[in-house]
Specification:
By secondary structure, this protein is an alpha+beta fold. The chain contains 5 helices and 10 strands; from the N terminus they run βββαββαβαβαββαβ. A hairpin with a 4-residue loop joins β4 and β5.
């Protein structure tokens, strides 16, 4: 399980006339990271620095860049914050517009850290666990009861197909799937069929 963000968030701070603009993105691959970096560099084309840090759950990849700032004053502190908060599949880019006053090593670490923390605090943090995407077939007469069960268990319905039988697409953890199978076998839930489509990280 890991934490991530639901959607893009940003924050801005000013330190001794230097402006620091933090943007935090949800990413799933190196390609996603590269595309977001291109977007930010194009958007803030006149900025002095675009420092970044990211973590990807797949293959446990972590990288950062100081982008011209003194070594260890920008990307590394930003990455430490992501790690400390167990945030993965996240890219944070902090853009700096230099204000003419040198901040020193400590000032830079503090500014890049503060901008990153502020962007995270503005974001909607969610948890992801490895789970299942499942199609469940029920009769029309049993739909309301099954929807009621899912609501009580805080299991989100992704889609419902109204064909000859009702096909309900849901995302759920291994434990939740085990419980549904058990209730089906005990005939406490009227379910015709359970088909696992795929396994993936799901929001919980």
């Amino acid at each position: 399980m890991f934490n991530t963000i639901k959607e893009t968030s940003s924050a801005e701070i000013v330190e001794k006339k230097s402006k620091f603009i933090a943007n935090i993105f949800y990413v799933e691959s190196i390609e996603d990271v590269e595309n977001k970096l291109k977007e930010i560099r194009k958007k803030y084309y006149d900025a002095k620095h675009n420092c970044f840090a990211f973590r990807l759950d797949k293959d446990n990849i972590s990288r950062f860049s100081d982008d011209g700032e003194p070594s260890g004053t920008a990307g590394s502190p930003m990455l430490n914050i992501l790690e400390g908060r167990n945030l993965s599949n996240v890219l944070v880019i902090v853009t700096r517009y230099f204000g003419g006053i040198l901040l020193g090593t400590g000032g830079l670490v503090r500014a890049y850290s503060d901008a990153t923390i502020k962007a995270i605090e503005n974001a909607n943090i969610v948890s992801k666990v490895f789970g299942n995407v499942v199609n469940i077939e029920v009769e029309y007469k049993d739909l309301d009861n099954f929807k009621y069960y899912l609501k009580n268990e805080n299991i989100n319905i992704e889609d419902i197909s109204y064909v000859e039988k009702i096909i309900i697409k849901i995302e759920l953890t291994d434990e939740e799937l085990k419980k549904i199978n058990q209730l089906k076998n005990e005939r406490k839930l009227n379910i015709n069929k359970i088909d696992i489509i795929t396994k993936k990280y799901i929001l919980k």
